[in-house]
TrEMBL record, chain A:
Stretches assigned to the ABC transporter domain: 13-249, 260-504
Record keyword ATP-binding present: yes
Pfam assignment, any one: ABC_tran
Lineage: Bacteria, Bacillati, Actinomycetota, Actinomycetes, Streptosporangiales
Gene name per UniProt: rbsA
Name of the protein in question: Ribose import ATP-binding protein RbsA
TrEMBL record, chain B:
Record organism: Actinomadura rubrobrunea
Topology within the bilayer: Multi-pass membrane protein
Compartment(s) of residence: Cell membrane
Transmembrane segments: 21-39, 59-90, 97-117, 172-192, 222-247, 253-270, 277-297, 303-321
UniProt cross-references to InterPro entries, sorted A to Z: ABC_transp_permease (IPR001851)
This protein's UniProt keywords: Cell membrane, Membrane, Transmembrane, Transmembrane helix
Protein name in UniProt: Ribose ABC transporter permease
Record GO terms (molecular function): transmembrane transporter activity
One matching Pfam family: BPD_transp_2
Annotated gene: rbsC
Principal location: membrane
GO CC term, one of those recorded: plasma membrane
TrEMBL record, chain C:
Organism: Actinomadura rubrobrunea
Stated name of the protein: Histidine kinase
Superkingdom of the organism of origin: Bacteria
Pfam families: BPD_transp_2
Bilayer topology term: Multi-pass membrane protein
């Protein structure tokens, strides 16, 4: 890799006045953006601020309506991934763009195969792939493994290896850390540092501001399709970046009355699932909000899914209101009094083309049917209208298709589904992921309200402010085990440190806080 | 960390012969052995020649169909496309006195055009190929019947005999059509395994949008595989006309099901992204063996489809099981 | 981001209030029932014009149209069977309905024609038999996880083979079977309406009502739409995904059984290739379901659209038979079916394309994980 020889002032990538609208809505309203060679440039903004559109335009996946994209002084034609690639732009998308049936080495070179006399040079590809994997701190033996056989986090690293495979001068990483474990993130950062030293420009998109302050040189904040600021990262605190993103200061912790004393409604003792989590024990009382906090991949989601019977535990005991339950399916869990808000709204939550009424009633068909056969449509409408009012869902009525609502309102609809038959235990996985700020606050208030009304609430989240704000107690999950417990009002830094864990835990390590 | 430290299923990259193919070879060998023991006439030259010649058209189309299915597509119109080619070429052979080479050329051209129509509809409309090709199945059948105009084509001369199942169609006892089928399969196998654009077919079947982003020319590849399948349907039509005689209006009916059966028995995943032409050759051979066996054993011919159905279920079922076991590792 | 874009687009359009013709055009594009109604009116009017002009071989009048309903009955019932399966999503399709018609018809033929069972128990047994055949498909697809295309291709082979072998490739047309033809006699209607085939009331209306009630009024219908729209979300909503999909296939078998009985009555004979001769009955049934607006991706489609599509195809076919002489009629029916299918899928395309682009990649990778 050659060092960029141009002067420091000459940017590697320059976007000028880029506009893009989708059917009358402006996603980007004239954005200027520059990346220098040898810098890691963070791009932040709330959902809908225009980040994804901006990368799509840089990578040529979409064309801008107006404005220019210039790479090393040459203007790129819009909407051509090939041209962008030729210019040295490589993109790693949020969802690994890989092909499950092909081995890793082929995935890395797909579309730009190494050839010998017109044929795919498998041996050369494997050698290069092994070299790349080694550089990424991965097992070079992976080169021959079919991608479908890899865990999801490793697929992400494979797709990063893929981007590195072609001497890229500009690397775009779209939320690379979303599914990486902390150790994998460290590996990634090492790689980014070495790229920086080699004069590669990196655009790094992430929601995790703590990461940005570690790795980035400059940060650009987008809000509502406009660039709000571009500043050296060192000049900004996390709080300042957050303020730039939202346009107003982030809200503090909530005030709640103390949790009433009482027996545990939800109790897990020594819960385990092979390859996901081990020996997880906790209790949640009525009226209490307990948060399972962990970085993505730590096992919080897996624990939540186990409680709901999606991926049942293979060891340990689960009790709801003192009665032992073994949910093997979500229906078992619901019957036992456990409801769950799934973490991935689009994939696991909504029926986008169907009405609000449908979306709410679908989880409670036996209860909303006469003789368990005929859907009681009047009641269905009444229930849906009731929730539209109560959860302040912004929609014309129960017949509105959910897909036409904003993310936050969709999330409220999915939440409403969990509340039709007041469950004693409510499990929420990433309750506000991909939700705009206003709706986030509303959902938080709702969750606290539900606890106040007597539900036992368990929140599995990787969102630290959310965790601090909601929880009466925070259980930090690390590597599939509960690593620490914090009372209400703990400092964010302490919780995060516990979740990140500076020493790698040994397999036989005993957790400290036995009850 | 435990999730990370979990050992991975280490598996060498797709070898030349995969599980399904080895199993198929075993099943065919077993069947042949059993048939050889129970039916005297099984291991006669004429019977084996007959099996290979019958299997050839299915194999030839299967070569293209494998590529189509690997891209997560399907083409159910091949039988109708064959009918169009057969009626036009048979007419030209009889009335126009067409020679061998121009006749084959004409067949390939018509077949490729019909395939290209499928490819264009699939690539540009982006509707599920089964629906599109159901539509063209009807349309092509209409075109064929229109040209038949209510009469079968009788008295077709034996110009295409070298491709047919008769004595003229054999050298050293091997039917030309089957040798041709195997040669085409070998070419296709090499293409799909060693040529970049051939590897791209697997990527398209895995995830077409991701393939596009990786620089794969998805539209062009789709046009290519459907056109190829049509072209091969044209070639198969030549083999079926072969020694001439009669071309009936029902020509090619049900061919699509036989071809698809051969492809899926050969281990190609109907969801795309996985499969080889070698498997298809074996799958077709298995289907041909079963057909021949039912006849030789004096069972009702109709039982053949029952066996084909069962073989499809067993082949796909064992593949499902293997995948499931692999995933749970 | 894209969600926001779409949403505001809709708002924007709602505010703008486009002109009446534009709104009508949108209605026809987005509401399949409205489009099919329009096409039906156009078809009938056009046939009237041809009739007046003397271009037809016979009168295309109310009596003819009513008589054509005879072929409407099995076709519509099978299209509804296909609808249930396609609605269940994950590429749901049933290639075996034709074979189920053949095999169930033969079973019914044996019961009534050979074993001399009384009619009512035979009817019930035949319907149960059809349901069992569908349940086999359901078991393979929903429980074992076979792709439905492959599973029903295989069972289609197997069922059609069994139907042919069951009676040595010969139809059953003994006296009791021939008597069944009475089922298909024409019923005189009051108010000067033309006589209509009896099976219209005895089979079609019950079947349509059954499917309509199932889809629109029962918890099963909700589950089916849920599973077809988003399987994972359905699972999280405590819906039994495999149970629901299994029932869809079993019901398709039940409806195929009903179509089989009707077909036996119509032919006055149980024919072993009743549902599989030529291109078979599965293809037209799938065509009609798609034409009726059932999304091949699952989760979207209405009974009204499917019934209208079946009616359109049947009356169009009836018209074609009057326009073309001899075997040409049958040919042009193929042309019409093919064109309708390609045209209706192209109509579905813009919406489908957008969704596929966004969902496709993620869905696939996630599915494999």
């Amino acid at each position: 890799m050659e060092r960029e020889t141009e002067g420091d002032e000459r940017p590697l990538l320059r976007l000028a006045g880029v506009r893009r609208s989708y059917g009358g809505v402006q996603a980007l309203r004239g954005v200027d953006f520059e990346v220098r060679a040898g810098e890691v440039h963070a791009l932040v903004g709330e959902n809908g601020a225009g980040k994804s559109t901006l990368i799509k335009i840089i990578s040529g996946a979409e064309a801008a309506d107006a404005g220019t994209v210039e790479m090393a002084g040459r203007v790129l034609p819009g909407g051509s991934t090939a041209a962008a690639f030729e210019a040295g732009i490589a993109t790693v998308y949020q969802e690994p763009q890989l092909f499950g049936e092909l081995p890793v080495a082929e995935n890395i070179f797909l579309g730009r195969e190494l050839r010998r006399r017109g044929l795919v040079d498998r041996a050369a590809q494997r050698r290069r792939a092994e070299e790349l994997l080694r550089r990424l701190g991965l097992d070079p033996g992976l080169a021959d493994v079919r991608v479908a056989d890899l865990p999801v986090a490793r697929r992400q690293l494979v797709s990063i290896a893929k981007a590195f495979a072609h001497e890229a001068r500009l690397l775009i990483l779209d939320e690379p850390s979303a599914i990486l474990t902390d150790r994998e993130i460290e590996v990634l950062f090492d790689v980014l540092r070495s790229l920086r030293a080699h004069g590669v420009g990196v655009v790094y998109i992430s929601h995790r501001l703590d990461e940005l302050t570690v790795i980035s040189d400059r940060v650009t904040v987008l809000r509502d399709g406009l660039r709000v600021a571009t500043r050296p990262t060192a000049e900004l605190t996390i709080r300042e970046i957050a303020r730039l993103m939202v346009g107003h200061a982030p809200v503090g912790a909530s005030r709640r009355r103390p949790v009433p004393d009482g027996p545990a409604v939800l109790e897990a003792a020594g819960l385990s699932r092979r390859g996901a989590f081990q020996d997880v024990s906790f209790q949640v009382r009525a009226g209490e909000v307990v948060a399972l906090f962990g970085l993505v991949g730590s096992g919080t989601g897996a624990i939540a899914r186990a409680l709901y019977g999606i991926d049942p535990p293979d060891g340990g005991v689960l009790r709801v209101a003192g009665r032992e339950v073994r949910p093997r399916t979500p229906a078992d869990a619901v019957a036992a009094g456990v409801a769950m808000l799934p973490g991935d709204r689009k994939a696991q939550g909504v029926f986008a083309s169907k009405s609000i009424g449908f979306n709410i009633s679908v989880g409670h068909l036996p209860a909303l049917s006469r003789a368990r056969v005929w859907v009681d449509r009047a009641r269905e409408r009444a229930v849906a209208s009731g929730f539209i009012d109560r959860l302040r869902i912004k929609a014309p009525g129960p017949a509105t298709p959910v897909g036409t609502l904003s993310g936050g309102n969709q999330q409220k609809v999915v939440l409403a589904r969990q509340l039709v038959q007041r469950p004693p235990v409510l499990v929420l996985e990433e309750p506000t992921q991909g939700v705009d700020v206003g709706a986030k606050d509303e959902i938080h208030d709702l969750v606290l309200g539900l606890a106040d009304e007597g539900s036992a609430v368990l929140v599995a989240s990787s969102d630290l402010p959310e965790t601090i704000r909601l929880a009466d107690r925070v259980l930090v999950v690390r590597g599939g085990r509960i690593a620490a417990e914090f009372p209400r009002g703990a400092a964010q830094a302490d919780v995060l440190a516990a979740a990140a864990g500076d020493d790698a835990p040994r397999a036989d390590e005993e957790t400290g806080e036995e009850r | 960390m435990t999730a990370l430290a979990r050992p991975l299923a280490r598996r060498p990259a797709a070898g030349a012969i995969e599980g399904q193919e080895a199993v198929l070879i075993g099943v065919i060998a077993l069947l042949w052995a059993a048939l050889g023991l129970s039916v005297d006439t099984f291991f006669t030259a004429s019977n084996l020649q007959n099996i290979l010649a019958t299997v050839a058209p299915v194999t030839i189309i299967g070569v293209g169909m494998t590529a189509v299915i690997v891209t997560a597509g399907i083409d159910v119109s091949v039988g109708s496309a064959m009918a169009v080619v057969m009626v036009i070429v048979a007419r030209q052979l009889r009335d126009g006195g067409l020679a061998f080479a121009p006749a084959v050329g004409l067949a390939l051209l018509i077949g490729a055009l019909l395939g290209l129509v499928n490819g264009a509809l699939v690539a540009y409309l982006r509707v599920h190929p089964i629906i599109i090709t159901f539509g063209t199945l009807n349309l092509y059948r209409f075109v064929a019947l229109e040209i038949f105009d209510g009469r079968e084509v009788a008295g077709v001369p034996g110009t295409l005999g070298p491709l047919g199942g008769g004595a003229e169609g054999r050298t050293l006892g091997l039917p030309h059509s089957w040798v041709l089928a195997v040669a085409l399969a070998a070419l296709m196998w090499a293409y799909m395994r060693h040529v970049p654009t051939g590897r791209h077919l697997y990527a398209i079947g895995g995830d077409a949008e991701a393939a596009r982003l990786a620089g794969v020319r998805v539209t062009r590849r789709l046009l290519g595989v459907y056109a190829l399948t049509g072209l091969l349907a044209g070639l198969a039509a030549c083999c079926v006309i072969g020694g001439g005689g009669l071309v009936a209006q029902s020509a090619g009916t049900g061919m699509e099901l036989q071809v698809i059966a051969a492809v899926v028995i050969g281990g190609t995943s109907i969801q795309g992204g996985r499969g080889t032409v070698l498997g298809t050759v074996l799958g077709a051979l298995l289907v041909g063996t079963v057909t021949s066996a039912v006849t030789l054993l004096g069972w009702p011919n109709e039982l053949t489809s029952l066996f084909i159905g069962v073989f499809i279920l067993v082949a796909v079922g064992s593949d499902l099981l293997r995948e499931r076991r692999r995933r749970s590792l | 981001m894209t969600t926001t874009a779409e949403e505001t687009t809709r708002d924007g359009q709602a505010v703008k209030r486009p002109s009446l013709p534009a709104r009508l055009g949108r209605l026809l594009l987005h509401d399949r029932v409205a489009l099919l109604c329009l096409l039906l009116v156009v078809l009938v009017a056009w046939m009237q014009v041809l009739d007046r002009g003397g271009y037809l071989l016979g009168p295309y009048d109310a009596a003819y149209m009513a008589a054509a309903l005879e072929s409407f009955v099995p076709l519509c019932v099978l299209a509804l069977a296909e609808t249930l399966v396609i609605l269940s999503g994950r590429g749901g399709i049933d290639l075996s309905v034709g074979a189920m018609v053949s095999l169930t018809g033969m079973a019914f033929g044996f019961m009534v024609g050979e074993w001399g069972w009384p009619l009512w128990p035979s009817l019930a047994a035949a319907l149960a038999f059809g349901t069992a055949l569908g349940a086999v498909n359901g078991f393979l697809v929903a429980v074992l996880g076979f792709p439905s295309l492959i599973a029903t291709l295989a069972t289609g082979y197997a069922y059609s083979s069994l139907a042919l072998v069951s009676n040595d490739n010969a139809p059953i047309s003994t006296k009791p079977i021939q008597d069944l033809h009475e089922l298909t006699s024409m019923v005189d209607l009051p108010f000067g309406l033309p006589p209509v085939p009896e099976q219209f009331f005895t089979f079609l209306i019950p079947c349509v009502a059954l499917v309509w009630l199932l889809l629109n009024r029962t918890a099963f219908g909700r589950r089916l739409y849920a599973v077809g729209t988003n399987e994972t979300a359905a699972r999280y909503a405590a819906v039994s995904v495999s149970g629901t999909r299994f029932r869809a296939f079993a019901l398709a078998g039940l409806l195929s059984g009903a179509a089989a009985i009707v077909t036996v009555g119509q032919f006055a004979s149980a024919r072993p290739d009743a549902g599989t001769v030529g291109n078979g009955m599965a293809l037209p049934a799938i065509t009609i379901a798609v034409l009726g607006g059932v999304a091949i991706t699952g989760g979207a489609g209405r009974v009204g659209g499917v019934v209208l599509a079946a009616l359109l195809v049947v009356w169009l076919n009836a018209g074609i038979l009057l326009y073309f002489e001899g075997s040409a009629g049958a040919r042009f029916q193929l042309l019409a079916l093919g064109l309708l299918l390609v045209a209706s899928t192209s109509l579905n395309a813009p919406a489908g394309r957008r969704r596929r682009r966004r969902r496709g990649p993620a869905g696939r990778t996630a599915g494999r994980a």
